[in-house]
């Protein structure tokens, strides 16, 4: 029997191996409230796309490392994905998930922008859904365009678990609202309620 997909009736918790997160305008502030809540023994990898203007260096690793118990890195091409590690997409590269003989890896691409963005959230979510299937959590936060809506549905179709920031709590509601319009999601929550879901995904316990 398939699990319920309506936000008012969230599914049982499930352990995931990775969580993909996407955000645009207001995303740094949102992640500053989420990532520091994760404990050192948190097991899923976290793969993150924040829209950054092309041609500008990313300071995300420097911003988040002092405040996170988990190691924080800028993603590298063909880099193995380690549990309990945060990876940020570098500027002007799409971040994808691939697989080699040893397991999931990161891949970088300079293919054309998607939704005027490179990195694009859809690209990460769709490639991660292909590799992780039902062992993936997808999270879409504040933002000013529709990037991520189709990618979140790819996570849904692959059997993964999906979470969207409640639009009226987002700094910019366009992105989460577009995700809700695109199809069903498992959770629609304000930021302060998300850490409990993340921890449940990490240990497979009740939410």
UniProtKB/TrEMBL annotation:
Top-level taxon of origin: Bacteria
Keywords: Chemotaxis, Hydrolase
EC number(s) recorded for this UniProt protein: 3.1.1.61
Pfam families found in the cross-reference section: CheB_methylest
CDD domains in alphabetical order: CheB (cd16433)
Catalytic activity: [protein]-L-glutamate 5-O-methyl ester + H2O = L-glutamyl-[protein] + methanol + H(+)
Active-site residue numbers: 24, 51, 147
CheB-type methylesterase domain ranges (all copies): 12-205
Enzyme class: hydrolase
InterPro entries: CheB_C, Sig_transdc_resp-reg_Me-estase
Protein name (Swiss-Prot/TrEMBL): protein-glutamate methylesterase
Source species: Corallococcus macrosporus
């Amino acid at each position: 029997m398939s699990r319920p997909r309506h936000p008012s009736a969230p599914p049982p918790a499930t352990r995931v191996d990775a969580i993909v997160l996407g955000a645009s305008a207001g995303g740094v502030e949102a992640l500053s409230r989420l990532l520091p809540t994760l404990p050192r023994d948190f097991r899923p990898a976290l793969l993150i796309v924040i829209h950054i203007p092309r041609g500008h260096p990313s300071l995300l690793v420097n911003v988040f490392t002092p405040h996170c118990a988990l190691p924080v890195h800028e993603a590298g091409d063909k880099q193995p994905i380690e549990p309990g590690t945060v990876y940020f997409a570098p500027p002007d590269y799409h971040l994808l998930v691939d697989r080699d003989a040893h397991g999931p890896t990161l891949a970088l691409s300079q293919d054309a922008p998607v939704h005027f963005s490179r990195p694009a959230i859809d690209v990460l979510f769709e490639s991660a859904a292909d590799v992780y299937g039902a062992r993936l959590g997808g999270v879409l936060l504040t933002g000013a365009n529709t990037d991520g809506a189709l990618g979140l549905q790819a996570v849904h179709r692959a059997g993964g678990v999906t979470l969207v920031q409640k639009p009226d709590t987002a700094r910019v509601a366009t992105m989460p609202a577009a995700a809700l319009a695109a199809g069903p999601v498992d959770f629609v929550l304000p930021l302060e309620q998300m850490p409990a879901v993340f921890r449940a995904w990490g240990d497979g316990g009740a939410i």
